[in-house]
Write a structure and sequence with these properties.
The complex is a heterodimer of chains A (about 475) and B (about 200).
Chain A: H1 6-14, E1 15-18, E2 24-27, E3 30-33, H2 39-47, E4 58-61, H3 77-93, E5 96-98, H4 108-114, E6 123-126, E7 140-143, H5 146-155, E8 157-160, E9 164-171, H6 180-191, E10 199-204, H7 206-209, H8 213-221, E11 231-233, H9 237-244, H10 247-250, H11 253-265, E12 276-281, E13 288-290, E14 298-300, H12 313-326, E15 341-344, H13 352-362, E16 372-375, H14 380-388, H15 391-398, E17 401-402, E18 423-426, E19 442-445, H16 448-457
Parallel strand pairs in A: 3-4, 3-6, 4-5, 6-7, 9-10, 9-12, 10-11, 15-16, 15-18, 16-17, 18-19
Antiparallel strand pairs in A: 1-2, 2-8, 13-14
Helix pairs in contact in A: 2-5, 6-8, 13-15, 13-16
Chain B: E1 10-13, E2 15-17, H1 25-28, H2 48-51, E3 73-75, H3 88-96, E4 100-103, H4 108-115, E5 121-123, H5 126-138, E6 144-147, E7 152-155, E8 158-161, H6 166-173, H7 179-184, H8 187-195
Parallel strand pairs in B: 2-3, 3-4, 4-5
Antiparallel strand pairs in B: 1-6, 6-7, 7-8
The chains are: A alpha/beta (about 475), B alpha/beta (about 200).
The structure holds iron/sulfur cluster (SF4).
Family (chain B): Belongs to the LeuD family. LeuD type 2 subfamily. Belongs to the LeuD family. LeuD type 1 subfamily.
EC number (chain B): 4.2.1.33
Organism (chain B): Halovenus aranensis
Chain lengths: ~475, ~200
């Protein structure tokens, strides 16, 4: 049993009681809701004639089904119905809703941190499995199901079982072109998509402490792909600097000073006990790409796709099936694998630093003729900030479509979908068969610069090998 | 009993048999009925693809037969409710009118979802189930009684042993199957926890 970890401390601070069924009842510090998973829970509440217990600790946004191109209302049938249902539920309960007219709308896991509401030492829940993202701030954040959403709406609490804690220490400095996305893909490759079952992951070590908040969010986001119930990074100066710059605390600096001691107090103790510890050599990681149909089927860009026979027995058949679906050959690297679509978006990688990295690759280059490329900023705030820096221009000049914020092709619930067996170089988190809208579609997960490089080359490419773009100061389109 | 959650000790009523092993959640509620904002009205779509043919004409499915239209006990065979975790499946059955299900065995997640709605899933041997289904065919207007506390199913002059399972029985009989109600009853403790949290309004620094 773990002791003295952030997980233990935050759990204990929020434990209301132990229920007769053996689960702990936890107080919920922030409940995030979106248009797809909340309507049924609200209906269940209405049927019981119950009110929302803590509307002031609840925040709504629209992201999953919302269109990313034309946003004139009404939207298409299902999207419009879900939108209206959320609008009505939020208005009736007095819940703040970040709809597209507010300038603050975006993917639920991007907007919570932006608003300054994702804070260390909070419990955060949302009817969405990637809620783990908020662990980047040292919050305890879980995805929940429909009945649990109803529980949270009605009581402001949730019933949960406590898990074990695995500390994952990433040592050393990450190499050139290696990002948080590559760290988490590397961890999942090593521990497996079910390696985290029964655990919460605590990420630490030099490589993690050096990450900015966007990187820590990319990392924690994919804890769920590793099978863990949640993931977190202990809060530090990087975390506090982010919080201090949000509207929430800028408007109220006294609140920042008041809460800071609490945030510091929930950090894992130096002598905390963990149920398991894993060490990863950060200096040995490369930009990662997936070759298969689960996030654990990944390799470094210069490494060969494995022979199924070289894998543990229980993974061989799945590897064979995945290689057949993807049309990849074992023994070769993924470099040169042709790409039809480049998707830069999702709650894993659509924040400002992600867009900056991709734009720096695209500057002075053009998207390959055979590639359809789209960039979907994670939120309206990201979008506005990127436009102010001139990133939109860089993307558009290179040949990317610049879209409105939403989940888009990450799960393809709106019109942004793969067609037939198209291959997508994607900055999202799931490469499951059918995930991007076509059952024959093929997804290769990678970091944002690698997506940009693939868009330019028309094939999977090591971004570190791209030839330089002309002489310094040369203008794209101007011959020298 | 906690905060108005009924204790479910027995369910009585007429029954409807649905035969077959491994009936999955896609059959119970086809996926195209999931793009909805409420569970309300799902009852009409229960077993939809088996109850209506391609021309949308009603078939001879047991749930379409007038003699079973008021039934509230469903009698099924093995591994009923396998497949996805969608809560829409028990919701659809409940909204059609089902209050208890008796079968040879149930998929675990489906049984858990039923429990969160207060619907007992009670098991008995294959022979007992077959005998019960045949009896229901011949006696559609007569009552079946599922006794959760005593773990029996009674019809006509027969009382057969059934299995409810310890966790399910406690939850149903003690009226603690509904986590919303269970947790709402701890309001004072919830407020006390909130007061100790520095970030909640009114919380201590
Ligand atoms: S971007 Fe993708 S993973 Fe993230 S919340 Fe949306 S659908 Fe889920």
């Amino acid at each position: 049993m773990s002791e003295g970890t952030l997980y233990d401390k935050v759990w204990d601070a929020h434990r209301v009681t132990t229920l007769p069924n053996g689960q702990d009842q936890l107080f919920v510090g922030l409940h995030l809701i979106h248009e797809v998973t909340s309507p049924q829970a609200f209906s269940m509440l209405a049927e019981r004639e119950m009110d929302v217990a803590r509307p002031e600790l609840t925040l709504g946004t629209v992201d999953h089904i919302v269109p990313t191109d034309d946003r004139t209302r009404p939207y298409d049938d299902a999207a419009e119905e879900m939108m209206q249902s959320l609008e009505q539920n939020a208005a009736e309960a007095g819940i703040e809703l970040l709809d597209p007219t507010t300038g603050d709308q975006g993917i639920v896991h991007v907007v919570g941190p932006e608003q300054g509401l994702t804070q260390p030492g909070k419990t955060i829940v949302c009817g969405d499995s990637h809620t783990a993202t908020h662990g980047a701030f040292g919050a305890l954040a879980f995805g929940i199901g429909t009945s649990q959403i109803r529980d949270v709406l009605a009581t402001g609490t949730v019933a949960m079982e406590k898990k074990a804690v695995r500390h994952i220490e990433v040592t050393g400095e990450l190499g050139e072109g290696v990002t948080a996305k590559d760290v988490i893909l590397g961890i999942i490759r090593r521990l497996g998509t079910d390696g985290g079952v029964g655990y919460v992951y605590e990420y630490g070590g030099e490589a993690i402490e050096a990450l900015d908040m966007a990187g820590r969010m990319s990392l924690c986001n994919m804890s769920i792909e590793g099978g863990a119930r949640a993931g977190y990074v202990n809060p530090d100066e990087t975390t506090y600097a982010w919080l201090e710059s949000t509207d929430y605390f800028e408007d109220n600096p006294g609140e920042f000073e008041r809460l800071r001691p609490y945030w510091e107090s929930v950090r894992s103790d130096a002598d905390a006990d963990y149920d398991d510890v894993v060490t990863v050599d950060g200096t040995a990681l490369e930009p990662m790409v997936t070759w298969g149909t689960t996030p654990e089927q990944g390799v470094g860009i210069t490494d060969p796709v494995p022979e199924p026979s070289s894998l543990p027995e229980d993974k061989r058949q799945r590897a064979r099936d995945a290689q057949a679906h993807m049309g990849v050959e074992p023994g070769e690297t993924m470099e040169g694998y042709p790409v039809d679509v480049a998707f830069l978006g999702s709650c894993t990688n659509a924040r400002l630093p992600d867009l900056r990295r991709a734009a720096s690759v695209l500057d002075g280059r053009t998207v390959h003729d055979s590639v359809r490329a789209l960039v979907v900023p994670g939120s309206q705030r990201v979008s506005t900030a990127a436009e102010a820096e001139g990133l939109r221009e860089t993307f558009v000049e290179a040949g990317f479509e610049w879209r409105e914020p939403g989940c888009s092709m990450c799960l393809a619930m709106n019109d942004d979908q793969l067609v037939g067996d198209e291959v997508c170089a994607s900055s999202s988190n799931r490469n499951f068969v059918g995930r991007q809208g076509s059952s024959a579609g093929r997804t290769v997960l990678m970091n944002p610069s690698m997506v940009a490089a693939a868009a330019v080359a028309g094939e999977v490419t090591d971004v570190r090998d791209l030839p330089p773009t002309g002489t310094p100061g040369s203008q794209p389109g101007v011959s020298v | 009993m906690s905060d108005g959650v009924p204790s479910v000790t027995r369910v009585s009523g007429t029954a409807v048999p649905i035969r077959g092993n491994d009936i999955d959640t896609d059959q119970i509620i086809p996926a195209r009925f999931l793009k909805v904002v409420s569970f309300e009205g799902l009852g009409q779509f229960a077993f939809f693809d088996q109850r209506y043919d391609e021309a949308d004409e009603p078939t001879d499915h047991p749930m379409n037969r007038p003699r079973h239209e008021d039934a509230n006990v469903l009698v099924v065979n093995a591994n009923f409710g396998c497949g996805s975790s969608r809560e829409h499946a028990p919701q659809a059955l409940m909204r059609w009118g089902i209050d208890a299900i008796v079968g040879e065995s149930f998929a675990e997640i489906f049984a858990g979802n039923c429990l969160s709605l207060g619907i007992p899933t009670v098991t008995a041997s294959a022979e007992e189930i077959t005998a019960l289904q045949e009896w229901v065919d011949g006696n559609p207007d007569e009552e079946v009684t599922v006794d959760i506390e005593a773990e029996t199913v009674t019809y006509s002059d027969n009382t057969v042993d059934a299995t409810v399972g310890e966790g399910q029985r406690t939850a149903l009989v003690d009226g603690i199957w509904d986590t919303t109600a269970l947790m709402r009853s701890n309001q004072a403790a919830i407020d006390a926890t909130a007061t100790d949290l520095p970030y909640v309004d009114g919380g201590q620094p």
